[in-house]
Amino acid sequence: MATSAPTPTSLSFFSSSLFVSSPSSKLIATTRLSLPFKTSPKPNLSISSQLSTLPILSFSGDKIGETYLDLKSAPPETARAVVHRAIITDQQNKRRGTASTLTRGEVRGGGKKPYPQKKTGRARRGSMRTPLRPGGGVIFGPKPRNWSIKINKKEKRLAISTALSSAAENTIVVEEFGDKFEKPKTKDFIEALKRWGLDPKQKSMFLMMEVPENVSKSSRNIGTLRMLTPRTLNLFDILNCDNMVLTPAALDYLNGRYGEDYQGDTEDEDEEEEEEGGEGADESADAEQ
Predict the structure, then answer these.
(1) How far apart are CA 283 and CA 289, in angstroms?
(2) Spatial separation of the C-alpha atoms in residues 212 and 228, rounded to whole Å
(3) How far from 17 is each of 13, 20, 65, 200, CA to CA, in Å?
(4) pTM to 2 decimals?
């Protein structure tokens, strides 16, 4: 009589061959564990790029020299995301957040039941200010809120420098022309644009350290032109313009403020950012009220 092999009294998942390591597998595992662990170097968040030379033009339109724009720009794989986040932040922080509607509980009137509940043949109704009727409340309408979002100073500075780097192909440098306009006259400014090779019908952005009164009045009637200073420099106008015009002083400011050798914020820049933050806080407070 053949005897059968004794069956185990209990089964365990670890008794399966899938969980039992063979000698070869132990050797492979030991070999893999003995390999040195190499960490990949941390990628740089920003790179310095010396762009192509920029022509320096005189007030008459003649080329008198060349210069360059040396800025810190984001890597190509992250540049689009950095600029997108910064422009969304700027646009969203401009929202006042004062849009408001009335719900059915806030609309004036409607406290009395318009007609009896039954024996009228009509749909039952408890108030004439229901959202289903004209003059009633609004369902899920907007209410005052704070739309502002935060962005780091270094990230915003990197976004502006990256946008300036991308606009360098259509950038020229013009010598100081603040004292060239004896009186405000739009026609003279349009002639100057044509001498510099700019089309008045295209969007142009001028960056000057200070905008003289005659220059400001001569250019304010040109709808495609923006006159900016370092205080009013913003990402939207950089991306929106077709041509960018700089003065030598403004070029030096950009190389110092957004270059690789930038050390940190100055006291004046901190005060400006605090003022901007205070204005935003006042607007949000007004919106909440």
Answers:
(1) 10
(2) 12
(3) 9, 5, 79, 80
(4) 0.69
- Give the integer Cα–Cα distance in Å for 243 and 199: 9
DSSP string, 98-130: ------TTTSS---S-SS-SSSSSS---S-TT-
Q: What is the pLDDT of residues 194-246, one digit of tens each?
A: 999 999 999 999 999 999 999 999 999 999 999 999 999 999 999 999 999 99
Q: What angle do CA 179, 183, 186 make, to 5 degrees?
A: 105
Percent of the chain's residues with pLDDT above 90: 58
Residue 203's alpha-carbon distances to 15, 193, 206, 225, 239, in angstroms, are 76, 12, 10, 6, 10
- Dihedral of alpha carbons 30, 34, 35, 39, sign: positive
Lowest-pLDDT choice from 78-82, 154-158, 284-288? 284-288
Question: How many angstroms separate the CA atoms of 50 and 59, rounded?
Answer: 26
Exposure string over 119-149, b if 16+ CB within 10 A, otherwise e: eeeeeeeebbbbeeeeebbeeeeeeeebebe
Distance separating alpha carbons of residues 117 and 125, to the nearest angstrom: 7
Alpha helices by DSSP H, the chain: 23-34, 76-93, 153-166, 186-195, 213-219, 235-240, 248-257, 267-288
* Beta pairing, strands 204-207 & 225-228: parallel
Single out the residue of 206, 168, 200 nearest to residue 55, CA to CA: 168
Closest CA to 163 of 238, 86, 254: 238
Q: Which two tokens stand for residue 225?
A: 């032109």
